[in-house]
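Report of the visiting student (M.T.), summer placement. My assignment was to run the structure pipeline on a short list of targets and document each run. The first record concerns glycerophosphodiester phosphodiesterase.
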Amino acid sequence: MALKAVHVSDVPNLDQVPQNASFSLYSTRLPKGVELGRGSLNAPKFAVIGHRGHGMNVLQSSDIKMKAFKENSIVSFNKAASFPIDFVEFDVQVTKDDYPVIFHDNFILTREDGIVLEKRVTELNLSEFLCYGPQKEVGKEGKPLLRKSKDGKITEWNVETDDSLCTLQEAFEQVEPSLGFNIELKFDDSVLYQQDYLIHVLQAILDVVFGYAKDRSIIFSSFQPDAALLVKKLQDKYPVYFLTNGGTEIFLDVRRNSLEEAMKLCLEGGLDGIVSEVKGVFRNPGAVPKIKDHNLSLLTYGKLNNVSEAVYIQHLMGIDGVIVDLVQEITEAVFDLMKPTTNNIEEESLSQGDDENIKLKTKPQFSQKELSFLLKLIPQLIQI
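After the run finished, the C-alpha cells were exported:
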C-alpha cells in the first residue's frame, strides 16, 4: 500500500495535513486490563497514544484535522477510542476545592464586556471552572472560551465538534473502558511548588484514580520532577514516567535538560520510563540503548510524531510508543509500515563451513520500503 500520510517535507508546517491522508483501518488495541510493569509497556506491539484525546487543537490552523474535536474532552477521548490506539494522554490539574479537572493551559480565558479576562485554573472552584464553554444543562449558556497562543495572540476556541469541560471522574465514567489513560500531572513551569502542596494535589488525583479506574490501564507522567517522584512514592500500582524536552529547551532545573538527566532521575527515584520530545531522541540516538539497558520504557511526543516516517524509524530504534495528534493517520500507518511483508526473500540455506553464506545471513537486512523511509527521513533529521 502506498504511503499517503504526512511527509517529512511538511514538518515545518504540521498544522497543514493533506486531505488524502488515509489508510485501511486495522485493530491493534491492547487487551483489556493489560498490566503495565516497570521497564516495559508489556505490550506485544508499538503503542500509539492520542495526544489530548483525538489530538490537540491548533486554532489558528486552516486544517480541519487540527480543530475537529475539542481537545481534552469526553467527545475527543471517545472519538480516539474508535481507532486502534492504546491510550489517550491528557492533562490533569486540581481546582481550589480539590477536584481534578482535565485542561492543558495554566490559565483559562474569557471575554466580558469586550475585555479579555484571565484566571489560573488552580485558583478556580470546580463550579467556576465548569462555567466556561458549552454547558451540559440544556439551554444554559457558558462563558466564551478563548485561548492564548505562544505568540500572545488571543483566539476564539472554535472547533467543529465542541464539548463541555470535564473532570477526571467524568472521564473514567464516560470514556470507553478498554482505552488506557496516560494522565499527565500538570504543573506550571514558572511556579516553585512546596512538597506539601504537591502531595495534597497528587493525593486528590489518586483518590479519583483508585475510586474509578477499575481495570483501566493507567500511566502517570509529569514534567515536574518532584511530582513524578512523589506520585511513585504515594502509590505503586501504576507506572510513572518522567516527561522531558530531551535537551531541546533549557530549564533552571537541570533534571529537565537532557535524556541522561531524565534517566538518572528515573533510576534514582524508581520511575518506570521516560517520555521525551522526539527531537531530543533524534538528536541523541545513543541514549536510546542506554535507557533500554536500564530496563526503562521510552515514549515520545512532538510534532514529528505526526510524520509516519518519523514514527517508523522510532519503531526500528526500539522506542516503545508515540503520542500523536493525527490518531487515524498514524494508527493506520503503523499497521501498514510494520506488518510483515509478503515478498521477503527466503534466506539461503547454509552449508557448514560456507563463510560467504554466513556473512550474507548475519549482515542486517532491510527491505526496499525500509531503506526508502530511512533515506528520506535522516537528511531532514540532522537539520532539526
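The mean pLDDT is 84. The CA atoms of residues 50 and 88 lie 4 Å apart. I thank the supervising group for their guidance throughout the placement.
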